[in-house]
Amino acid sequence: MAALHLGSATAGSGQRMSFRRFPAIVAAGFFALASPALAVTDDAALQQTSFATTFTERYEVGSYTGVLKLTIGKDGVVSGFYRNQDAGRFETVTGGLDGDQIHLDFDFNGRVHIDGTYDGKSISGSTLVGGRVYYFVASPQTS
Q1: How many whole angstroms separate alpha carbon 86 and alpha carbon 57?
Q2: Under a CB-based contact definition with an 8 Å cutoff, are residues 71 and 51 in contact?
Q3: DSSP-based three-state secondary structure for 127
Q4: Mean pLDDT (whole number) for 7-33
Q5: Three-class SS state of 12
Q6: Model confidence at 34, in pLDDT bands (50, 70, 90)?
Q7: What is the pLDDT of residues 44-75, one digit of tens each?
Q8: What is d(CA 79, CA 127) in angstroms, rounded to the nearest whole number?
Q9: pTM, to two decimals
Q10: What is the dihedral of CA 120, 123, 124, 129, to 10 degrees?
Q11: Distance, CA of 119 to CA of 138 (rounded, Å)
């Protein structure tokens, strides 16, 4: 079996072709192909919103507060992150929007799924974690 060598090759006319520019050519091709996709993604961004959030357990006093930053695309794809006020960690959030129905998946060392409604300003929903019901409210952040 012959070893692959990308140093040079012989063209059909007997001329030697150099592959020194090969990485640059591949990179240029990649960016040429990726650029339209990036433009579509930018055009697909419908809105970016910051929310003040609360998770409240159904039968307990107190709540967990945080900040949720979401981008909602025209195609209904939701992405962003959540930061718990107490822990300070950033967690990935993904989801989808169909009409006024929204679902969000928080990556809290395991997925927490919320089904709710979005009225164009606020999100309200609920989830079941460890057999306990939590209510979720996200209101536009004022500062």
Answers
A1: 16
A2: no
A3: strand
A4: 40
A5: coil
A6: very low
A7: 556 889 999 999 998 888 888 999 999 999 99
A8: 18
A9: 0.66
A10: 150
A11: 11
Within 10 Å of residue 134's Cβ, how many Cβ atoms?
A: 20
Three-state SS string over 77-126 comes to EEEEEEEECCCCCEEEEEEEEECCEEEEEEECCCEEEEEEEECCCCEEEE
8 Å CB contact between 135 and 123? no
Give the helix/strand (H/E) hosting 44: helix 22-44
Bridge partners of 54, per DSSP, are: 65, 137
Q: Which residue has the tokens 């929310």?
A: 51
Contact 114, 104 (CB under 8 A): yes
Residue 21: count of CB within 10 angstroms of its CB: 10
Whether 39 and 33 have beta carbons less than 8 Å apart is answered as no
Count of alpha carbons within 13 angstroms of residue 23, beta-carbon side: 2
For position 44, what pLDDT does the model report? Answer: 54
Tell which residue, 72, 109, 114, has the closest CA to residue 90: 109
Q: Name the β-bridge partners of 68.
A: 51, 82
